[in-house]
Write a structure and sequence with these properties.
- The chain is α/β, with parallel strands linked by helices.
- The chain has 3 domains: 129 residues, Orthogonal Bundle (Fumarate Reductase Iron-sulfur Protein, Chain B, domain 2); 164 residues, FAD/NAD(P)-binding domain (3-Layer(bba) Sandwich); 158 residues, 3-Layer(bba) Sandwich (FAD/NAD(P)-binding domain), CATH 3.50.50.60.
- It has 18 helices and 16 strands.
- The chain has a 5-stranded parallel sheet. A 5-stranded parallel sheet has the order 6-14-7-8-9. Strands 10, 11, 12 and 13 form a 4-stranded antiparallel sheet that branches.
- Helix 3 crosses helix 5 and helix 5 packs antiparallel against helix 6.
């Protein structure tokens, strides 16, 4: 029985939200150490005290993986941190990761009753606290697996959707093997998110926890090339396959000059930095264009663009500038990431868009011809559309341009699995409730279905897939609504 919070509600309302300790901007702007330093136990206790114990906690409704947040917060208040971590793991296979990169402000924290008049409970910071406490203690509270069912599931992709599904399926007693195309496990968690926001050791630790639960992993396997979906099912006898490959095909501006040396997609730039260890320069060779004492721009306004510009700053860029065609109010990046970038010396050039890249006779980028924008009527996303201001062209000196405009579906699996239906945008078509595809025994979820989204939404899709896969393996019944074109 955990200790109850007896502090009157009116006194809890007077407690200010605890601030996350951060590495000094003057220091962190030149290294890849983690920015957020984690809450000390006393601060975690104080933050848990603020919870007003809603009768119908909206935070739980808005959590894509269904974490029992009220119970977790109560256990933190009682000082039973290991029990809190174990409670988290009942629904979240990757708590140390989501505590760092999940956009809680628009999900669980966004539904917190305290946030209606003040600041919500720092649910994400508390989640990270208990996950880190558990890791430091060495006392891992892993769920108990059900007896073996004799069924096997192949999971394609070791990103958040694949890992979340793997954790749930192995608990249900199925044999689970995750296939990863790259040489490191974690998908976007390792190649797309920089060390200063999500240390590789944290991802590796969560993957190791899944190994301890019985999940098997195999790297350097490109499903669709090394082996097809049909071969996994017919020759290797997997009873079900979950496709969780993400959406890794980068988008570009489609303007003249994008072929010049020095123009990268944000995906390629971050992958080179993260997987090829450019963040450890000069200890490791730098597998990207040398940013030192150069002018770098990143085009885009999302979290990936923010990660890229902050990374360029740390690699020694003379100027690191975010170029975005809308105003700051329309940026989809997390407010915390914007704040951190400004503190680290990143410049923001809003209402600006490149229309051409320029280069020298040797093919190297020298500048970007840009136009200034103004905001017009809202578009389908609800954001005001950017409109070019006539006669506003100007030249921006640039040595390195990184395009962070999002991604689309890689077509490899779709092109090698003929009976797998896709949407008009080449994403895999599924029943949204069950994640079942047009091909019996094959499920899909995460960015390969929805397009680029958040880590926690991909994990939610992984959990839905695991439930649906388990039902299929248990009953043998394949039912699905017709996939949408």
């Amino acid at each position: 029985m955990s200790e109850k919070n007896l502090l009157p509600i009116n006194q809890r309302l007077k407690i200010a939200r605890t601030k996350m300790p951060e590495l000094d901007p003057e220091i962190r702007g030149h290294n890849f150490e983690e920015v957020n330093q984690g809450l000390p136990p006393a601060d975690a206790k104080t933050e848990a005290t603020r919870c007003i114990a809603c009768a119908n906690p909206g935070c739980e409704v808005q959590c894509p993986v269904g974490v029992k947040i009220r119970e977790v917060v109560d256990l933190i208040y009682a000082g039973d941190y290991l029990a809190a971590a174990a409670k988290l793991r009942e629904d979240n296979s990757l708590p140390a990761i989501t505590g760092r990169v999940c956009p809680q402000e628009t999900q669980c924290e966004g539904a917190c009753l305290l946030g209606k008049k003040g600041e919500s409970i720092a649910i994400g910071n508390l989640e990270r606290f208990v996950a880190d406490f558990e890791r430091a203690s060495g006392q891992l509270g892993l769920p108990v697996n059900a007896p073996p069912t004799g069924k096997s599931v192949a999971i394609v992709g070791s990103g958040p959707a694949g890992l979340s599904a793997a954790g749930d399926l192995v608990q249900k007693g199925h044999r689970v093997r995750v296939f990863e195309a790259l040489h490191k496990l974690g998908g976007v968690l390792v190649y797309g998110i920089p060390e200063f926001r999500l240390p590789k050791a944290i991802v590796n630790g969560e993957v190791d926890n899944l190994r301890k639960m019985g999940v098997e992993f195999e790297t350097n396997v490109i499903v669709g090339k090394s082996v097809t979906i049909d071969e996994l099912m017919q020759e290797e006898h997997y009873d079900a396959v979950f496709v969780a490959t993400g959406a890794g095909l980068p988008k570009f501006l489609g303007v003249p000059g994008e072929h010049f040396n020095g123009v990268y997609s944000a995906n390629e730039f971050l992958t080179r930095v993260n997987l090829m260890r450019a963040y450890q320069f000069p200890e490791c060779d730098q597998p990207v264009f040398d940013c030192r004492n150069r002018d770098v721009i990143v085009v885009g306004g999302g979290n990936t663009a923010m990660d890229a510009v902050r990374t360029a700053r740390r690699l020694g860029a003379r100027t690191a500038t975010l170029v975005y065609r809308r105003s700051e109010a329309e940026m989809p990046a997390r407010a915390e990431e914007v704040k951190h970038a400004k503190e680290e010396g990143v410049a923001f050039r809003m209402l600006t868009n490149p229309i051409e890249f320029l280069g020298d006779e040797k093919g190297w980028l020298t500048g970007a011809r840009c136009v200034r924008m103004e905001l017009g009527e809202p578009d389908a996303s609800g954001r005001r559309s950017p409109v070019v201001i006539p006669g506003s062209e100007f030249l921006l000196p640039v040595h390195l341009a990184i395009i962070g405009l999002g991604t689309t579906a890689n077509p490899l699996i779709q092109s090698t699995t003929p009976d797998l239906k896709t949407t008009s945008r080449k994403y895999i078509s599924t029943d949204p409730e069950t994640t079942r595809t047009s091909k019996p025994g094959v499920f899909a979820g995460g960015d390969i279905v929805t397009g680029g989204a958040t880590v926690i939404l991909a994990m939610g899709a992984g959990r839905r897939a695991a439930e649906s896969i388990h039902e299929y393996l248990t009953t043998g019944v394949w039912e699905t609504t017709p996939p949408k074109p």
